[in-house]
Amino acid sequence: MATEIIFDCDTGVDDAMAIMYGAGNGARFVACTVTHGNVPVHVGARNTLTILDAVGLTDVPVHQGAARPMAQPLLTAEFVHGHDGLGDAGHAPSQRSLAGTLAAAEIVRLARSRPGELTLVAVGPLTNIGLALLLEPELPRLIRRVVVMGGAAGVPGNASETGEANIWHDPEAAQLVLDAPWDLVLVGLEITMSTAMPAEVVARLEAVETPHGRMLWQSMQHYIDVYEPLVGMRTCVLHDPLAMALALDPDLATYRLARAGVELRGERTRGQVVADLRGFEPDPTDPLEPGVVRLVDTLDVEAFHEKFLRALGA
């Protein structure tokens, strides 16, 4: 059976990768909800429609959500994703209309209407999810599983010395999400940075001939320009697609439970996910315990890359 997904995003280049990965690997998108993050929320919402249209998912509703974080100013990342969020590749935007319901309210409505059935995949700042938890305290009981691209447990950040961008952009919302008693997989930089595509994968992607694959390759050029000096070769890291991949196929990875929280007050560490990696007793044993998350321990990177390429027709 297809995995039924609410996809919460801030659609820039790697969100587009995640949508295309899901579309090509059996995801059934029930709805997309959009937050601020890579770009302002209205730009991300339009980009989400554009990418859904490109893969033929013209019936998936897109709900616009939070325009700013809960407790700090709005910051966006066009320098990574291009001014339009899709690598300034000149793609014609979708002319489809957004759905009328605000994102957090729609997450709650869907969860209430389909208790225990839906997987929530979040690849942007967690403002919409935090607001949904405030609206419906029973949300953790209603959602089947949560997969978040976020955090940097024990490794450097990418938005600050210690903070990963999605957590760092709204730490208060992230803490609400980590504190909720649901089965939460945290897909952080400690594992996503291992997904940089080797040269042979990049070559296959460059040669792809499907319309949506060509569209993504064009959008990725700006993104690859950003990553090339960081990685040392012409490639990029597949952050958001990995969260989608593990929502659809958890067996691509192994996991460990850890207690984790978000630093909210540190002058240089605000937005850092602090996970207890010491292995001291008592180890957490219940994934539904508030503050306990699943961290990705190992990943079959080669299988992940193959599934990514397959989704694009490569």
From TrEMBL:
Keywords: Glycosidase, Hydrolase. Pfam families: IU_nuc_hydro. One of its GO terms (molecular function) is hydrolase activity. Transmembrane segments: none annotated. Residues 5-305 form the Inosine/uridine-preferring nucleoside hydrolase domain. The keyword Hydrolase applies. This is Nucleoside hydrolase. The lineage of its organism: Bacteria, Bacillati, Actinomycetota, Actinomycetes, Micrococcales.
